[in-house]
Amino acid sequence: MNNTKIPNKIISILEDKIQLIKRDSGAIYLVGPIRLPVNLDGETVTFKWYCWLNCNEVTEDYERIIEKLSSENLAEYQQSSVLVYGDFEFNEDALIRMHSICHTGDIFGSKRCDCGFQLKQSMRMIVEHGTGALFYLANHEGRGIGLFSKAMAYVLQENGYDTVDANISLGFVDDSRNYTDAIHVLKALRSKPVTLITNNPKKLAALQESGMEVSDRTPLWGDISEFNEKYLKTKINRSGHIGDGGAL
User: Fold this and answer.
1) Residues 106, 175, 181, 217: which is the catalytic one?
2) For this structure, is 177 an active site residue?
3) How far apart are CA 13 and CA 4, in angstroms?
4) pLDDT tens digits, residue range 19-39?
5) 206-230: per-residue pLDDT in tens?
């Protein structure tokens, strides 16, 4: 454990960038905005980046929270974040994307899914629209089963199982993702209605059930290939994804 006291100068810089979001149990600590220039199709686009952390302790003594973190190995855990573009708080119409982390698709560019394409395409859509937010949900790997379990599910898929049956065969439900924390953060950043970029009605329902006003939904299809065609058909036929705009 690091017992070094953090200098007051450091605390004064950081505490202005930390926001407390109270939950029914515990709190979410949101840090940002942080200027983040991003390479998008060869052009530099500047987003505002926020990251959040769940904590059982609810306090506005941010010095206490910051000092506690030095004894936590946060690199062993996943933290989610959000990229915000434009005047997200006040613009009348904003696009949002609730994007589940996909280690294989987002990082390695795997063609077994459409996640990497959806990540970049949603960023393009938000920039073209003028304002919006991309929520990158780090505990949603493999629809919530985690990376190691996802790897085992891939082994089953290579032996004839589809995505749903592979997850269920490993003792999981088809989709265990939860959007509660992301919606708390969304409401802290914006109170006006949003347009949701998704093919997944469960994401739409989660927003609506939270009381967040959704003015519209726009589909996100593309990068269909021989490698992911079965995966995409399973999304529609077994997981209930809306097939509008798809070329399947």
Assistant:
1) 175
2) yes
3) 18
4) 999 988 899 999 999 999 999
5) 999 999 999 999 999 888 888 878 8
The answer to whether 48 and 94 have CB atoms below 8 angstroms apart is no
Label residue 184 by pLDDT band (50, 70, 90).
very high
What is the number of H-type helices and E-type strands within the chain? 9, 8
175 a catalytic residue: yes
**Given 177, 181, 190, 217, the catalytic residue:** 177
Superfamily of domain covering 32-55+74-140+177-237: GTP cyclohydrolase II (3.40.50.10990)
pTM of the full structure: 0.90
Q: How many CA atoms lie within 13 A of 22 on its CB side?
A: 4
Domain ranges of the chain: 32-55+74-140+177-237
